User: Which sequence fits this backbone?
Protein backbone atom coordinates (compact mmCIF):
# COMPACT_ATOMS: atom_id res chain seq x y z
CA UNK A 1 0.00 0.00 0.00
CA UNK A 2 1.29 3.45 -0.93
CA UNK A 3 2.06 5.69 2.06
CA UNK A 4 3.53 8.56 0.08
CA UNK A 5 2.65 9.57 -3.46
CA UNK A 6 4.49 12.44 -5.11
CA UNK A 7 2.95 13.44 -8.45
CA UNK A 8 4.80 15.77 -10.85
CA UNK A 9 5.95 18.06 -8.07
CA UNK A 10 7.91 21.18 -8.92
CA UNK A 11 9.17 24.03 -6.81
CA UNK A 12 11.01 27.14 -7.80
CA UNK A 13 12.38 30.01 -5.74
CA UNK A 14 12.35 32.88 -8.21
CA UNK A 15 14.51 31.83 -11.15
CA UNK A 16 15.94 28.83 -9.30
CA UNK A 17 14.22 25.54 -10.14
CA UNK A 18 14.78 23.64 -6.89
CA UNK A 19 12.58 20.63 -7.72
CA UNK A 20 11.56 19.79 -11.26
CA UNK A 21 8.62 17.50 -12.05
CA UNK A 22 9.42 14.77 -9.52
CA UNK A 23 7.14 11.74 -9.16
CA UNK A 24 7.50 8.61 -7.03
CA UNK A 25 5.66 6.44 -4.54
CA UNK A 26 6.75 4.90 -1.26
CA UNK A 27 5.15 1.79 0.15
CA UNK A 28 4.53 0.59 3.67
CA UNK A 29 7.73 -0.56 5.41
CA UNK A 30 10.17 0.78 2.79
CA UNK A 31 13.48 2.26 3.89
CA UNK A 32 14.42 4.57 1.07
CA UNK A 33 17.75 6.33 0.65
CA UNK A 34 17.37 9.78 -0.85
CA UNK A 35 20.64 10.79 -2.43
CA UNK A 36 21.94 13.87 -4.14
CA UNK A 37 24.60 16.52 -3.85
CA UNK A 38 24.13 19.50 -1.56
CA UNK A 39 21.70 21.87 -3.25
CA UNK A 40 20.20 19.13 -5.46
CA UNK A 41 16.72 19.71 -4.02
CA UNK A 42 16.50 16.97 -1.36
CA UNK A 43 15.63 19.25 1.56
CA UNK A 44 13.16 21.26 -0.51
CA UNK A 45 11.33 18.09 -1.53
CA UNK A 46 11.33 16.81 2.05
CA UNK A 47 9.97 20.13 3.28
CA UNK A 48 7.15 19.90 0.73
CA UNK A 49 6.31 16.37 1.84
CA UNK A 50 6.11 17.56 5.45
CA UNK A 51 3.78 20.43 4.42
CA UNK A 52 6.34 22.99 5.55
CA UNK A 53 6.38 24.62 2.13
CA UNK A 54 3.92 24.28 -0.71
CA UNK A 55 4.80 22.94 -4.14
CA UNK A 56 4.41 25.32 -7.08
CA UNK A 57 2.81 22.51 -9.06
CA UNK A 58 2.01 18.84 -8.65
CA UNK A 59 0.41 17.00 -5.77
CA UNK A 60 1.57 15.09 -2.72
CA UNK A 61 -0.55 12.48 -0.92
CA UNK A 62 0.25 10.97 2.46
CA UNK A 63 -1.75 7.84 3.15
CA UNK A 64 -4.29 9.05 0.58
CA UNK A 65 -4.64 12.61 1.96
CA UNK A 66 -3.65 15.59 -0.17
CA UNK A 67 -1.19 17.73 1.83
CA UNK A 68 -2.63 21.00 0.56
CA UNK A 69 -6.13 20.07 1.74
CA UNK A 70 -5.41 18.09 4.92
CA UNK A 71 -2.09 19.50 6.07
CA UNK A 72 -2.94 19.10 9.76
CA UNK A 73 -4.05 15.47 9.38
CA UNK A 74 -1.01 14.54 7.37
CA UNK A 75 1.39 16.15 9.86
CA UNK A 76 -0.02 13.73 12.41
CA UNK A 77 1.14 10.90 10.15
CA UNK A 78 4.65 12.25 9.56
CA UNK A 79 7.70 12.27 11.78
CA UNK A 80 10.35 14.70 10.58
CA UNK A 81 13.91 15.32 11.58
CA UNK A 82 15.35 18.37 9.80
CA UNK A 83 19.04 18.57 8.97
CA UNK A 84 19.70 20.50 12.20
CA UNK A 85 17.86 18.72 15.03
CA UNK A 86 15.19 21.16 16.24
CA UNK A 87 15.98 21.08 19.95
CA UNK A 88 15.31 23.47 22.81
CA UNK A 89 18.69 23.49 24.48
CA UNK A 90 17.44 24.72 27.87
CA UNK A 91 15.08 21.74 28.30
CA UNK A 92 15.97 18.31 29.60
CA UNK A 93 15.52 15.37 27.22
CA UNK A 94 12.39 14.27 29.09
CA UNK A 95 10.84 17.75 29.11
CA UNK A 96 11.50 18.13 25.41
CA UNK A 97 10.05 14.75 24.46
CA UNK A 98 7.01 15.36 26.67
CA UNK A 99 6.48 18.69 24.93
CA UNK A 100 6.86 17.00 21.52
CA UNK A 101 4.30 14.36 22.55
CA UNK A 102 1.84 17.02 23.71
CA UNK A 103 1.99 19.15 20.57
CA UNK A 104 1.81 16.04 18.39
CA UNK A 105 -1.45 15.04 20.02
CA UNK A 106 -0.31 11.99 22.01
CA UNK A 107 -3.04 11.57 24.64
CA UNK A 108 -2.12 12.03 28.31
CA UNK A 109 -2.84 8.34 28.92
CA UNK A 110 -0.44 7.17 26.21
CA UNK A 111 2.30 9.70 26.92
CA UNK A 112 4.01 7.76 29.70
CA UNK A 113 4.08 4.58 27.63
CA UNK A 114 5.30 6.39 24.51
CA UNK A 115 7.98 8.30 26.39
CA UNK A 116 9.32 5.11 27.96
CA UNK A 117 9.22 3.40 24.57
CA UNK A 118 11.18 6.05 22.64
CA UNK A 119 13.66 6.55 25.48
CA UNK A 120 14.45 2.87 25.34
CA UNK A 121 14.37 2.60 21.55
CA UNK A 122 16.70 5.58 21.11
CA UNK A 123 18.85 4.59 24.10
CA UNK A 124 18.22 7.88 25.88
CA UNK A 125 17.11 6.60 29.28
CA UNK A 126 20.45 7.34 30.95
CA UNK A 127 20.42 10.98 29.79
CA UNK A 128 16.71 11.73 30.14
CA UNK A 129 17.25 14.23 32.98
CA UNK A 130 20.18 15.96 31.30
CA UNK A 131 19.80 19.37 29.71
CA UNK A 132 19.95 19.06 25.93
CA UNK A 133 22.70 21.69 25.61
CA UNK A 134 25.07 19.38 27.55
CA UNK A 135 24.57 16.36 25.26
CA UNK A 136 26.98 15.14 22.57
CA UNK A 137 26.04 15.49 18.90
CA UNK A 138 25.18 11.79 18.68
CA UNK A 139 22.76 12.04 21.59
CA UNK A 140 21.24 15.22 20.18
CA UNK A 141 20.62 13.40 16.90
CA UNK A 142 18.92 10.56 18.77
CA UNK A 143 16.75 13.02 20.68
CA UNK A 144 15.81 14.47 17.28
CA UNK A 145 14.81 11.02 16.03
CA UNK A 146 12.93 10.34 19.28
CA UNK A 147 10.76 13.44 18.80
CA UNK A 148 10.09 12.36 15.22
CA UNK A 149 8.75 8.94 16.24
CA UNK A 150 7.05 9.77 19.54
CA UNK A 151 3.58 9.99 17.95
CA UNK A 152 4.08 6.75 15.99
CA UNK A 153 3.96 8.28 12.51
CA UNK A 154 3.41 6.16 9.42
CA UNK A 155 6.09 8.01 7.50
CA UNK A 156 9.44 9.02 8.94
CA UNK A 157 11.46 11.63 7.07
CA UNK A 158 15.06 12.14 8.11
CA UNK A 159 17.20 14.84 6.54
CA UNK A 160 20.86 13.82 6.86
CA UNK A 161 20.49 12.16 10.28
CA UNK A 162 24.13 11.02 10.29
CA UNK A 163 25.65 14.35 9.33
CA UNK A 164 28.60 15.32 11.52
CA UNK A 165 28.59 12.09 13.56
CA UNK A 166 31.62 9.92 14.26
CA UNK A 167 31.63 6.37 12.76
CA UNK A 168 30.38 4.81 15.99
CA UNK A 169 27.51 7.28 16.26
CA UNK A 170 26.67 6.73 12.57
CA UNK A 171 26.33 3.00 13.25
CA UNK A 172 24.09 3.63 16.25
CA UNK A 173 21.81 6.04 14.37
CA UNK A 174 21.58 3.72 11.34
CA UNK A 175 20.74 0.76 13.60
CA UNK A 176 18.00 2.87 15.16
CA UNK A 177 16.63 3.77 11.70
CA UNK A 178 16.82 0.15 10.59
CA UNK A 179 14.65 -0.84 13.56
CA UNK A 180 11.92 1.47 12.30
CA UNK A 181 11.17 -0.54 9.16
CA UNK A 182 8.84 -2.88 11.05
CA UNK A 183 6.60 -0.01 12.05
CA UNK A 184 6.88 2.72 9.43
CA UNK A 185 8.14 3.86 6.06
CA UNK A 186 11.43 5.76 6.21
CA UNK A 187 12.76 8.28 3.71
CA UNK A 188 16.24 9.44 4.61
CA UNK A 189 18.69 11.64 2.86
CA UNK A 190 22.33 11.05 3.59
CA UNK A 191 25.85 11.39 2.30
CA UNK A 192 27.00 8.27 4.13
CA UNK A 193 26.63 6.06 1.05
CA UNK A 194 28.41 2.86 2.17
CA UNK A 195 26.18 2.81 5.24
CA UNK A 196 22.93 3.43 3.40
CA UNK A 197 23.69 0.32 1.33
CA UNK A 198 23.30 -1.70 4.50
CA UNK A 199 19.79 -0.56 5.40
CA UNK A 200 18.01 0.88 2.34
CA UNK A 201 15.91 -1.27 0.06
CA UNK A 202 15.44 1.43 -2.50
CA UNK A 203 17.33 4.46 -3.79
CA UNK A 204 16.03 7.77 -5.07
CA UNK A 205 18.69 10.01 -6.56
CA UNK A 206 18.06 13.64 -7.37
CA UNK A 207 20.22 15.92 -9.47
CA UNK A 208 19.48 19.60 -10.14
CA UNK A 209 15.94 19.09 -8.90
CA UNK A 210 15.22 16.12 -11.18
CA UNK A 211 14.81 12.54 -10.07
CA UNK A 212 17.41 10.59 -12.03
CA UNK A 213 17.25 7.23 -10.24
CA UNK A 214 14.31 5.45 -8.64
CA UNK A 215 15.28 1.81 -8.25
CA UNK A 216 15.59 -0.91 -5.68
CA UNK A 217 19.12 -0.97 -4.29
CA UNK A 218 19.60 -4.54 -5.38
CA UNK A 219 18.63 -3.92 -9.01
CA UNK A 220 20.55 -0.65 -9.07
CA UNK A 221 23.82 -2.27 -8.02
CA UNK A 222 23.24 -5.33 -10.18
CA UNK A 223 22.17 -3.37 -13.25
CA UNK A 224 25.02 -0.91 -13.03
CA UNK A 225 27.56 -3.62 -12.53
CA UNK A 226 26.32 -5.35 -15.68
CA UNK A 227 26.44 -2.08 -17.58
CA UNK A 228 29.92 -1.38 -16.32
CA UNK A 229 31.03 -4.82 -17.41
CA UNK A 230 29.75 -4.27 -20.96
CA UNK A 231 31.45 -0.90 -21.23
CA UNK A 232 34.81 -2.18 -20.23
CA UNK A 233 34.80 -5.42 -22.20
CA UNK A 234 37.07 -4.10 -24.94
CA UNK A 235 39.41 -2.40 -22.58
CA UNK A 236 40.13 -4.87 -19.84
CA UNK A 237 40.87 -8.49 -19.49
CA UNK A 238 38.11 -10.81 -18.26
CA UNK A 239 39.70 -10.98 -14.84
CA UNK A 240 39.93 -7.19 -14.46
CA UNK A 241 36.36 -6.90 -15.67
CA UNK A 242 35.09 -9.17 -12.92
CA UNK A 243 37.02 -7.25 -10.32
CA UNK A 244 35.59 -3.95 -11.61
CA UNK A 245 32.06 -5.33 -11.42
CA UNK A 246 32.51 -6.46 -7.86
CA UNK A 247 33.98 -3.14 -6.77
CA UNK A 248 31.12 -0.96 -8.03
CA UNK A 249 29.16 0.45 -5.15
CA UNK A 250 26.51 3.03 -4.47
CA UNK A 251 29.28 5.55 -3.92
CA UNK A 252 30.66 4.92 -7.42
CA UNK A 253 27.19 5.10 -8.95
CA UNK A 254 26.71 8.41 -7.18
CA UNK A 255 30.00 9.77 -8.52
CA UNK A 256 29.22 8.52 -12.04
CA UNK A 257 26.00 10.51 -12.03
CA UNK A 258 27.51 13.63 -10.54
CA UNK A 259 30.76 13.97 -12.43
CA UNK A 260 31.40 17.53 -13.48
CA UNK A 261 31.78 18.03 -17.24
CA UNK A 262 35.37 18.39 -18.46
CA UNK A 263 36.36 22.03 -18.97
CA UNK A 264 35.84 23.32 -22.50
CA UNK A 265 38.72 24.75 -24.51
CA UNK A 266 37.63 28.29 -23.68
CA UNK A 267 37.89 27.58 -19.95
CA UNK A 268 41.16 27.56 -18.06
CA UNK A 269 41.71 24.05 -16.72
CA UNK A 270 42.21 23.73 -12.99
CA UNK A 271 45.87 23.13 -12.18
CA UNK A 272 47.35 21.46 -9.18
CA UNK A 273 49.92 23.60 -7.31
CA UNK A 274 52.78 21.50 -8.70
CA UNK A 275 51.51 21.93 -12.28
CA UNK A 276 51.15 25.63 -11.67
CA UNK A 277 54.71 25.94 -10.36
CA UNK A 278 56.14 23.84 -13.22
CA UNK A 279 54.83 26.37 -15.75
CA UNK A 280 57.38 28.88 -14.50
CA UNK B 1 -6.53 23.53 23.78
CA UNK B 2 -4.04 21.01 25.24
CA UNK B 3 -1.58 21.92 22.51
CA UNK B 4 -1.90 25.65 23.30
CA UNK B 5 -1.31 24.90 27.00
CA UNK B 6 1.76 22.81 26.08
CA UNK B 7 3.15 25.69 24.02
CA UNK B 8 2.42 28.18 26.81
CA UNK B 9 4.16 25.97 29.38
CA UNK B 10 7.15 25.55 27.08
CA UNK B 11 7.48 29.33 26.67
CA UNK B 12 7.18 29.96 30.40
CA UNK B 13 9.81 27.32 31.04
CA UNK B 14 12.03 29.06 28.52
CA UNK B 15 11.69 32.43 30.34
CA UNK B 16 12.21 31.09 33.82
CA UNK B 17 15.04 28.70 32.97
CA UNK B 18 17.22 31.67 32.06
CA UNK B 19 18.17 34.60 34.29
CA UNK B 20 16.66 37.08 31.80
CA UNK B 21 13.12 36.78 33.19
CA UNK B 22 14.26 37.27 36.78
CA UNK B 23 16.50 40.20 35.86
CA UNK B 24 13.67 41.91 33.98
CA UNK B 25 11.21 41.26 36.84
CA UNK B 26 13.58 42.61 39.50
CA UNK B 27 14.72 45.58 37.39
CA UNK B 28 11.12 46.57 36.57
CA UNK B 29 9.96 46.31 40.15
CA UNK B 30 12.93 48.31 41.44
CA UNK B 31 12.29 51.00 38.86
CA UNK B 32 8.55 51.13 39.55
CA UNK B 33 9.15 51.26 43.30
CA UNK B 34 11.55 54.19 43.01
CA UNK B 35 9.16 56.06 40.71
CA UNK B 36 6.17 55.21 42.90
CA UNK B 37 7.76 56.65 46.04
CA UNK B 38 9.01 59.71 44.12
CA UNK B 39 5.51 60.40 42.81
CA UNK B 40 3.89 59.87 46.23
CA UNK B 41 6.45 62.17 47.81
CA UNK B 42 5.96 64.82 45.14
CA UNK B 43 2.16 64.74 44.64
CA UNK B 44 1.00 63.72 48.12
CA UNK B 45 -2.00 62.00 46.49
CA UNK B 46 -3.57 58.76 47.64
CA UNK B 47 -4.06 57.54 44.08
CA UNK B 48 -2.07 55.51 41.54
CA UNK B 49 -3.06 57.61 38.53
CA UNK B 50 0.41 58.97 37.89
CA UNK B 51 2.18 55.68 38.43
CA UNK B 52 -0.06 54.06 35.81
CA UNK B 53 1.04 56.66 33.29
CA UNK B 54 4.67 56.16 34.21
CA UNK B 55 4.24 52.39 33.94
CA UNK B 56 2.68 52.82 30.50
CA UNK B 57 5.74 54.73 29.30
CA UNK B 58 8.13 52.23 30.86
CA UNK B 59 6.35 49.29 29.26
CA UNK B 60 7.02 50.78 25.82
CA UNK B 61 10.69 50.06 26.54
CA UNK B 62 10.30 46.83 28.50
CA UNK B 63 7.77 44.77 26.53
CA UNK B 64 9.67 44.69 23.19
CA UNK B 65 12.64 43.29 25.12
CA UNK B 66 10.42 40.46 26.31
CA UNK B 67 8.65 39.76 23.04
CA UNK B 68 11.51 40.14 20.55
CA UNK B 69 12.61 36.53 20.95
CA UNK B 70 9.18 34.89 20.70
CA UNK B 71 9.41 33.97 17.01
CA UNK B 72 12.79 35.42 16.05
CA UNK B 73 14.62 32.96 18.31
CA UNK B 74 12.65 29.97 17.00
CA UNK B 75 13.55 30.98 13.46
CA UNK B 76 17.21 31.51 14.27
CA UNK B 77 17.49 28.16 16.10
CA UNK B 78 15.63 26.17 13.45
CA UNK B 79 12.89 25.13 15.89
CA UNK B 80 10.26 27.00 13.89
CA UNK B 81 10.44 24.15 11.38
CA UNK B 82 9.70 21.74 14.24
CA UNK B 83 6.58 23.69 15.25
CA UNK B 84 5.36 24.21 11.71
CA UNK B 85 5.72 20.54 10.73
CA UNK B 86 3.95 19.40 13.91
CA UNK B 87 0.14 19.05 13.81
CA UNK B 88 -0.37 22.62 15.00
CA UNK B 89 -2.25 25.44 13.34
CA UNK B 90 -0.60 28.88 13.16
CA UNK B 91 -3.28 30.20 15.55
CA UNK B 92 -2.33 27.58 18.17
CA UNK B 93 1.31 28.64 17.95
CA UNK B 94 0.39 32.33 18.15
CA UNK B 95 -1.96 31.86 21.11
CA UNK B 96 0.46 29.61 22.98
CA UNK B 97 3.18 32.21 22.78
CA UNK B 98 0.82 35.12 23.45
CA UNK B 99 -0.67 33.56 26.59
CA UNK B 100 2.76 32.76 28.00
CA UNK B 101 3.86 36.37 27.69
CA UNK B 102 0.52 37.56 29.05
CA UNK B 103 1.00 35.36 32.14
CA UNK B 104 4.50 36.74 32.66
CA UNK B 105 3.22 40.30 32.26
CA UNK B 106 0.28 39.65 34.61
CA UNK B 107 2.71 38.38 37.23
CA UNK B 108 4.75 41.57 36.92
CA UNK B 109 1.65 43.76 37.17
CA UNK B 110 0.16 41.82 40.06
CA UNK B 111 3.30 42.33 42.18
CA UNK B 112 2.78 46.09 41.89
CA UNK B 113 -0.65 45.53 43.52
CA UNK B 114 1.13 46.16 46.79
CA UNK B 115 1.05 49.89 45.91
CA UNK B 116 -2.67 49.90 46.68
CA UNK B 117 -2.03 48.74 50.25
CA UNK B 118 0.72 51.32 50.67
CA UNK B 119 -1.51 54.25 49.62
CA UNK B 120 -4.36 52.80 51.69
CA UNK B 121 -2.09 52.86 54.74
CA UNK B 122 -1.59 56.61 54.31
CA UNK B 123 -5.09 57.65 53.23
CA UNK B 124 -8.37 56.59 51.76
CA UNK B 125 -7.87 55.83 48.06
CA UNK B 126 -10.71 55.07 45.65
CA UNK B 127 -10.40 51.32 45.10
CA UNK B 128 -12.58 51.45 41.99
CA UNK B 129 -10.32 53.90 40.15
CA UNK B 130 -7.25 51.87 41.13
CA UNK B 131 -8.90 48.67 39.89
CA UNK B 132 -9.92 50.33 36.62
CA UNK B 133 -6.37 51.68 36.28
CA UNK B 134 -5.03 48.15 36.63
CA UNK B 135 -7.53 46.90 34.02
CA UNK B 136 -6.31 49.67 31.70
CA UNK B 137 -2.60 49.01 32.19
CA UNK B 138 -3.20 45.27 31.79
CA UNK B 139 -5.08 45.82 28.52
CA UNK B 140 -2.40 48.19 27.32
CA UNK B 141 0.34 45.67 28.09
CA UNK B 142 -1.70 42.98 26.34
CA UNK B 143 -1.79 45.21 23.25
CA UNK B 144 1.95 45.91 23.44
CA UNK B 145 2.65 42.16 23.68
CA UNK B 146 0.47 41.48 20.63
CA UNK B 147 2.43 44.14 18.71
CA UNK B 148 5.73 42.63 19.89
CA UNK B 149 4.59 39.17 18.85
CA UNK B 150 3.70 40.47 15.39
CA UNK B 151 7.05 42.16 14.81
CA UNK B 152 8.88 39.07 16.09
CA UNK B 153 7.10 36.99 13.45
CA UNK B 154 8.50 39.18 10.69
CA UNK B 155 12.18 38.51 11.24
CA UNK B 156 14.77 36.10 12.64
CA UNK B 157 16.77 38.99 14.08
CA UNK B 158 15.74 39.88 17.63
CA UNK B 159 17.18 43.41 17.44
CA UNK B 160 15.17 44.19 14.32
CA UNK B 161 12.05 42.77 16.00
CA UNK B 162 12.56 44.98 19.08
CA UNK B 163 13.32 48.10 17.02
CA UNK B 164 10.21 47.61 14.87
CA UNK B 165 8.15 47.25 18.05
CA UNK B 166 9.62 50.48 19.43
CA UNK B 167 8.74 52.27 16.20
CA UNK B 168 5.10 51.14 16.35
CA UNK B 169 4.70 51.70 20.10
CA UNK B 170 6.23 55.18 20.02
CA UNK B 171 4.03 56.08 17.06
CA UNK B 172 0.95 54.99 19.00
CA UNK B 173 2.05 56.70 22.21
CA UNK B 174 3.08 60.01 20.69
CA UNK B 175 0.41 60.28 17.98
CA UNK B 176 -1.62 62.52 20.32
CA UNK B 177 1.29 65.00 20.40
CA UNK B 178 0.83 65.77 16.71
CA UNK B 179 -2.83 66.79 16.93
CA UNK B 180 -1.90 70.49 16.89
CA UNK B 181 -0.82 70.10 13.24
CA UNK B 182 -4.16 68.62 12.19
CA UNK B 183 -7.83 69.47 12.39
CA UNK B 184 -11.14 67.66 12.00
CA UNK B 185 -11.07 63.95 11.23
CA UNK B 186 -7.26 63.68 11.20
CA UNK B 187 -7.03 65.27 14.63
CA UNK B 188 -9.71 62.99 16.04
CA UNK B 189 -8.05 59.98 14.39
CA UNK B 190 -4.71 60.77 16.05
CA UNK B 191 -6.40 61.18 19.45
CA UNK B 192 -8.21 57.85 19.07
CA UNK B 193 -5.05 56.15 17.80
CA UNK B 194 -3.00 57.17 20.83
CA UNK B 195 -2.72 54.71 23.70
CA UNK B 196 -2.29 57.64 26.10
CA UNK B 197 -5.79 59.02 25.57
CA UNK B 198 -7.35 55.61 26.25
CA UNK B 199 -5.34 54.80 29.37
CA UNK B 200 -6.12 58.22 30.86
CA UNK B 201 -9.78 57.26 31.20
CA UNK B 202 -8.95 53.98 32.93
CA UNK B 203 -6.53 55.75 35.30
CA UNK B 204 -9.33 58.18 36.28
CA UNK B 205 -11.67 55.28 37.05
CA UNK B 206 -13.69 55.57 33.84
CA UNK B 207 -14.13 52.38 31.85
CA UNK B 208 -15.82 53.06 28.52
CA UNK B 209 -16.77 50.59 25.83
CA UNK B 210 -14.78 52.52 23.21
CA UNK B 211 -11.56 52.26 25.26
CA UNK B 212 -12.03 48.53 25.86
CA UNK B 213 -12.85 47.97 22.18
CA UNK B 214 -9.73 49.95 21.18
CA UNK B 215 -7.47 47.58 23.10
CA UNK B 216 -9.33 44.38 22.21
CA UNK B 217 -9.54 45.29 18.52
CA UNK B 218 -5.82 46.12 18.49
CA UNK B 219 -4.97 42.81 20.17
CA UNK B 220 -7.14 40.74 17.83
CA UNK B 221 -5.80 42.58 14.76
CA UNK B 222 -2.18 41.96 15.76
CA UNK B 223 -2.79 38.29 16.59
CA UNK B 224 -4.59 37.72 13.28
CA UNK B 225 -1.76 39.44 11.39
CA UNK B 226 0.78 37.30 13.27
CA UNK B 227 -1.14 34.16 12.28
CA UNK B 228 -1.21 35.32 8.66
CA UNK B 229 2.50 36.11 8.79
CA UNK B 230 3.25 32.55 9.92
CA UNK B 231 0.81 31.05 7.46
CA UNK B 232 2.45 33.02 4.67
CA UNK B 233 5.83 31.61 5.71
CA UNK B 234 4.34 28.14 5.82
CA UNK B 235 2.92 28.20 2.33
CA UNK B 236 5.28 30.61 0.60
Assistant:
Amino acid sequence: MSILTVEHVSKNFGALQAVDNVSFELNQGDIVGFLGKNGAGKTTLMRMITAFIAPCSGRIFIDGDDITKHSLTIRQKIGYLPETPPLYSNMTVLQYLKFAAEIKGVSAKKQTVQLAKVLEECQLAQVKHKTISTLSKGYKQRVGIAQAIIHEPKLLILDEPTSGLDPMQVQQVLALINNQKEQRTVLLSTHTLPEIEKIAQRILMIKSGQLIIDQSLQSLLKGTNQQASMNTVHENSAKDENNQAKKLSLEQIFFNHHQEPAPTSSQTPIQTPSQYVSNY
Amino acid sequence: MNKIIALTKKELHSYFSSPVAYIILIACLLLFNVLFFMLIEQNREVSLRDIFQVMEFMFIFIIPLLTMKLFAEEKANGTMEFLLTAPLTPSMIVLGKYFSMLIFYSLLISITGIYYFIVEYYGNPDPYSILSGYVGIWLEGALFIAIGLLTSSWTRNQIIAAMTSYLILFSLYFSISFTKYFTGFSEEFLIQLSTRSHLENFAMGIITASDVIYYLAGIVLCLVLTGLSINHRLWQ
